[in-house]
Every structure is written in structure tokens, then in C-alpha cells.
Specification:
This protein has 94 residues and is α+β, with helices and mostly antiparallel strands. The strands form two sheets. It has a four-stranded antiparallel β-sheet with strand order 1-2-6-3. A two-stranded antiparallel ribbon has the order 4-5. The two termini are 30 Å apart. A hairpin with a 2-residue loop joins strand 4 (64-67) and strand 5. The longest helix is centred in the middle third of the chain and has 12 residues, at 37-48. It is built from two helices and six strands.
Length: 94
Amino acid sequence: MKSLKNVLNLPILSEKSLANRMLSNQYVFRVPPSANKAEIKKAVEARFEVKVVSVNTLNSEGKLKQVRGVMGRRAAWKKAVIRLRQGDVIKELE
């Protein structure tokens, strides 16, 4: 079990994530690829003092990139979509 403060890297603030925040009380975070749903849920509840209803995760494989004729790959990452209880808000992200 890793430290809960290392589970959440940063929030993803795109147009789609902001629309989901307003319509269905969902927040999107970038998390380490090794984090699982239970760790993500505990980290959000402990850090922001809210009640998490559900956690969905998406694995994103790194893109292939070519720089000066050498092929390389960007790092793989994971996205977590967190749905909060009705009425709960993460004040730090508002």
C-alpha cells in the first residue's frame, strides 16, 4: 500500500471534465498507473473530506513519437473519474 498523498497527481481541467463537474458532480484526476480504485477512493475522501460514490479508471498508453529520426514513446498514464455524493464539492478545485 502506497502513501495516500502520492495517489493523486493533479486534476485534469479540460472542457469535458468541467462540464462533467457541473452536470453530474464528477471530478477527473491524473493518477499513477499502479493506483487501484480502492486507493484512489481513500485518497480523495481523506484529502478533500468528501464522500465518493464511484471511481472509474482509464489507462492511456503513451504515444509513439519521432525526434530526429529516433523513435521513442511517451510515458503511459492513468486517468480517474471520481463521482461524489450529491451536494459534496471539492472547494480547492472551484
